[in-house]
Amino acid sequence: MARFVPDPHVLRLGEALAALRRQRGLSQAEAGARLEMTSQGWGLYEAGRRPGLFRPDVQRRLTGALDSTPEALALLAAGGPDAAATGPAAGLEARGRAFSGASIPQTHRLEVTDDALSPWADRGVVLDYRPGQPRSGQGCVILTTDGQRLARIFDRSAADGLHVRGVGGLEGKEVIDHSRVAQLCLVTARHEQ
User: Fold this and answer.
1) Does 1 fall in a domain?
2) What confidence tens digit (pLDDT) does each residue in 41-58 have?
3) Helix or strand or coil: residue 26?
4) Is 50 found in the same domain as 133?
5) Quick one: which of 191, 160, 193, 190 has its CA closest to 177?
6) In what residue span(s) does the HTH cro/C1-type domain sit (predicted)?
7) Which CATH number covers residue 52?
8) pLDDT tens digits, residue range 56-99?
9) Cis peptide before 88 (omega within 30 of 0)
10) 79 is in which domain, residue-wise?
11) Is the whole model's pTM more than 0.85, yes or no?
C-alpha cells in the first residue's frame, strides 16, 4: 500500500492553523471542543493529514473556533507580515515530527515578588520563561500591552480572555482580556533562591 504523503501546501496550512491556535492559548483538545471535535481530529488538520483544510467552509469553521479568519490563516501559511507574531512556530519546516529552520526562543527571567503563587512559587523564586503556549496548570508569564509582566498559573483560553490563577493566592482566579495580552509565555524552570 502506498504511504500517504501530505501536500506541502496543506502542511503549511496545518502549521499556520497550529500557530493561530497557540496564539489564542488553546490546546488541541480545547480548540477541538469548540467544534465538538476530538483533539486527535484537530491534530490531523494541523499535521496536514486532512486535505479538507483546502476547503473554504472548513477553513471558516476551524479559524472561527480560534476567533480568527481564513484570511489570517492564508497570510500565516504564506509567511506574511503577521507570521512573526506566531512566536516559535514561525519559519518551521515540517518533516514528520522533526523540525528544521527554527531558532531557539530566548529565555527570560522574572523574580516573584509576592506570595500569590504559593506554594507553587514563593516570594524570591526566579522563573525562567519563553514565548510559547502553556498547558492547563502550568506556570505562565503574561506580557501585557501596558508593559506589565504577570506571573500566573494558566487554566485556559476562551473567547472572553485568558483564564488564570494566582491573584491573591492560587485559588484567586482572573480573566485577562485578549486585547491586554501582548505575548503569552510559558514557564520553563523555577529557581529557589
Assistant:
1) no
2) 899 989 888 767 878 888
3) coil
4) no
5) 160
6) 17-73
7) 1.10.260.40
8) 888 889 998 888 888 888 888 877 544 434 433 334 444 444 44
9) no
10) 8-100
11) no
**Domain boundary residue, one of 81, 100, 119:** 100
Q: Where are the alpha helices (DSSP H) in the chain?
A: 8-23, 28-33, 39-46, 56-65, 70-77
Provide the number of structural domains found in the chain.
2
Query: Does residue 183 sit in the same domain as residue 161?
Result: yes
142 and 167: one domain? yes
Which residue, chain included where needed, has cell 507580515? 81
Q: What's the length of the chain?
A: 193
Of the candidates 43, 26, 20, 22, the one whose C-alpha atom is nearest the C-alpha of residue 136 is 26
pLDDT digits (tens, 9 = 90+) for 135-173: 888 889 999 999 999 999 999 988 888 999 987 766 789
The total of other beta-carbon atoms located within 10 Å of residue 37's CB is: 19
Torsion of CA 86, 88, 94, 100, to 10 degrees: 140
- 130 lies in the same domain as 171: yes
Range list of H helices, 48-187:
56-65, 70-77
